[in-house]
Specification:
The complex is a heterodimer.
Chain A (H helix, E strand, L loop, with lengths): L12 H19 L3 H30 L2 E3 L4 E3 L1 H20 L1 H6 L4 H20 L3 H20 L7 H30 L4 H9 L8 H17 L8 H8 L2 H24 L6 H25 L3 H21 L5 H26 L14 H4 L1 H15 L5 H15 L3 H27 L11 H19 L2 H11 L1
Antiparallel strand pairs in A: 1-2
Chain B lengths: L4 H21 L3 H26 L3 H31 L13
Helix pairs in contact in B: 1-2, 2-3
Classes of the chains: A mainly alpha, B mainly alpha.
């Protein structure tokens, strides 16, 4: 008699809601001629249902503490809830700012919508997984959906090139990740985080076995690829440049959320007792990403590529927090939340300026936008300053928190590298601002619809609000995770 | 001399390296794609060999999941290759170089 594992529906409520939403969207899109009129309602309902699921999860954790279900595969705890909430916020803002892209796809709009939901399911599962096989499944559900999303822009000339590069390199990264899991399994005899943790907490404190070290290294390389950390970032600029503008912000954000969630759990549970062995390589990757991302961003001529390379350096800052071990989760999550929202908002403005059909946003196109469309120009300015870490924006609070943790965690050299890079980063973040306000140009005047206006406005409020008054959120996060 | 699980894991490591070498050196998208499949199957062999050596079932079960994911990847990958080929008449990744920097 095989024991039935405990099934806890509340542990997967948000994922369930998104899956149902994705299926319903697909069914409606193929079966109804008036699908376009229903899509906003289904999308709104799905997002609301996911939010309700998150609230139910929060109440459950508040009442019963964290719980493990599905035969030790899924954990329901506050950290996972916070990450899923960030994911949901990213979806909501991405759909608002990218709604014109979704409707512009016509009958394909339903497909894009359901792929967004499905990729979110995968990356959300990565946040709650405590089993390496489930982690792999979540990673692949999310990644494969993103490959298709990258290819969906039929009219965008470079979309197929971007999709091909993303797919080939992404699949290699997944295979490398999976080989890491297999070697880890061969070395420790366990596929669960807890089993690996117990193995490492035993007699061996530092990796000695070559097989095991190789496995752990491959595991991390696979995830570092997904967050576009240097030197595993080569796909990011081309994908950010070629993929449809309406959705590329979400693509970058979603992959980062999922992989950072997994890395955070890695240093908290399975590899916690060997953190000394992985801290130096992680810190080295962090430093390399920060420096290389900043230097390459300076020489780019296209705002999309600037944002891609800035994403590389942001991956470095996030890794800086992770390299300190499991002690900086509040700071990492705050940074992640504020960065992904600003990224989605900034790409929303990029897609508004480009309209449909074009791919690429050379800096010349931005000249004179301050006169043609002051709201968008000022919004983009705030987003750029937020990414740069200007005081009075959320980006500053995020960077400050990570630097403080890294400094007290004996990574002083890394903090100095990060500070220098942050100063240099102002150059490329402000270049587009200078182009918008101080140079003349007669590019397109973007039309701002109300969904995009709400999305951009929300992101603005969050960026500035959390920059001026971050204490409530930080207190909530500390109370929930501490 | 008996052929034990360790031999299979060595073979798998060899296959994995061949797969990586294929991805890095070949320029035809389909061949690169086949190399990725080779890497995934090397992983499968490792899982099976490790599961046998450990006397643990989860290694064998993992293979089913990998197979399913590989099949899903094939579907998406081939569709992308076809889309590229239709537009450009070639599946050579070196010709996909509109973007760089």
């Amino acid at each position: 008699m095989v024991e039935t594992p405990e099934i806890s529906l509340v542990a997967i409520l948000p994922e369930l809601a998104l899956t149902v939403g994705a299926v319903v969207v697909l069914m409606v899109a193929v079966s109804s001629r008036r699908a376009a009129t229903y899509l906003p309602w289904i999308a709104g309902l799905t997002v609301a249902a996911t939010g309700a699921g998150l609230i139910a999860q929060y109440n459950d954790v508040a009442a019963n503490g964290f719980s493990v279900s599905y035969a030790g595969m899924i954990v329901l705890d506050n950290q996972g809830i916070v990450i899923r909430t960030v994911m949901l916020a990213a979806i909501a803002v991405a759909l608002l700012v990218g709604w014109r892209y979704v409707t512009g796809l016509g009958t394909r709009g339903g497909e894009a919508l359901s792929l967004v939901f499905l990729s979110a399911v995968g990356f959300m599962l990565m946040a709650s997984s405590i089993h390496f096989m489930l982690l792999f499944l979540g990673l692949e559900v999310g990644s494969i959906s993103l490959y298709v999303l990258a290819a969906l822009g039929q009219r965008a000339k470079r979309a197929d090139e971007a999709a091909m590069k993303y797919f080939l390199l992404g699949s290699v990264a997944s295979a490398i990740f999976l080989y890491g899991v297999a070697l880890l399994y061969a070395g420790t005899g366990s596929l669960t985080y807890l089993g690996v943790f117990e193995f490492f907490s035993g007699d061996t404190l530092v990796f000695s076995d070559g097989l095991l070290s190789a496995g752990v290294a491959l595991l991390f390389v696979g995830l570092l690829f997904k967050i576009a950390a240097a030197p595993f970032h080569s796909w990011a600029p081309d994908v950010y440049q070629g993929a449809p503008a309406g959705i590329v912000g979400y693509m970058g954000a979603a992959a980062k959320i999922g992989a950072i969630a997994a890395l955070l759990r890695f240093v908290q549970v399975p590899f916690q007792s060997v953190i000394e062995s992985i801290q130096v390589p992680l810190a080295a990757v962090a430093a390399f990403s920060v420096v290389l991302g900043t230097l390459y961003a300076i020489v780019q001529q296209d705002l999309r590529r600037v944002l891609a390379y800035s994403g590389v350096s942001h991956a470095g800052f996030l890794l800086m927090g992770i390299a300190t071990g499991g002690v900086a989760e509040v700071q990492v999550l705050f940074y992640l939340a504020t960065y992904v929202l600003v990224l989605v908002g900034a790409f929303g403005i990029v897609s508004l300026l480009e309209g449909s059909g074009s791919a690429g946003s050379p800096i010349e196109n931005w000249k004179g936008l301050g006169r043609r469309s002051p709201f968008l120009a000022w919004s983009l300015t705030v987003f750029m300053l937020g990414m740069a870490g200007m005081p009075a924006t959320a980006g500053f609070i995020g960077k400050f928190g990570i630097f403080t943790r890294a400094w007290s965690g004996d990574l002083e050299w890394l903090v100095i590298v990060g500070l220098l890079a942050s100063v240099a980063a102002f150059f490329f973040y402000l270049r587009v601002v200078v182009a918008m306000f101080f140079e003349d140009g007669d590019g397109k005047t973007p039309k701002l619809g109300w969904p995009a206006g709400i999305g951009i406005g929300l992101t603005l409020v969050i960026t500035v609000g959390l920059g001026l008054y971050p204490t409530p959120l930080l207190d909530v996060l500390t109370a929930a995770l501490g | 001399m008996t052929v034990g699980p360790a031999w299979y894991m060595l073979l798998a490591a060899g296959l994995f390296v061949i797969g990586i070498a294929g991805v890095l050196t070949r320029r035809n998208a389909l061949i690169m794609f086949m190399s990725i499949e080779l890497m995934l199957n090397a992983v499968n062999l490792t899982f099976i060999a490790a599961g046998t050596a450990l006397g643990d079932l989860s290694g064998q079960v993992a293979v089913f999941f990998v197979l399913v994911v590989a099949a899903a990847e094939v579907v998406v990958g081939l569709a992308i290759v076809v889309a590229v080929y239709r537009r450009r008449g070639t599946a050579n990744v070196d010709e996909l170089s509109e973007m760089s920097g």
